[in-house]
Amino acid sequence: QVQLVESGGGLVQAGGSLRLSCAASGRTFSSYAMGWFRQAPGKEREFVADISSHGRITRYADSVKGRFTISRDNAKNTVYLQMNSLKPEDTAVYYCNFGANAYSPIRYVPSDYWGQGTQVTVSS
User: Fold this and answer.
1) Cα–chain-centroid distance for residue 122?
2) What's the Rg (C-alpha) of the chain?
């Protein structure tokens, strides 16, 4: 049974930082790319960042580039999202996702496996 469990969300003031974690199980973690997405109220879920299976290639949405950092620890089956210089527009539920493969050069290809999400709220 594949499971993804996010943690680390919360309420933070603009300019602050949070670190999200996503613990994975039920799949060979090191064989798959991992992605972070977010969904704000009334909006569609959007891509935030992804990381290749070996962790050497990362990719970011323009809206978070330079502020967010994705990383992974394959020994711990965990992917992280370090979020700095947070803005009110970063407020959303953040989800992690198992990739469909080790890496997709054109764009991240998500699988059907999603976590339950963790709420991030940034106050102005």
Assistant:
1) 17
2) 13
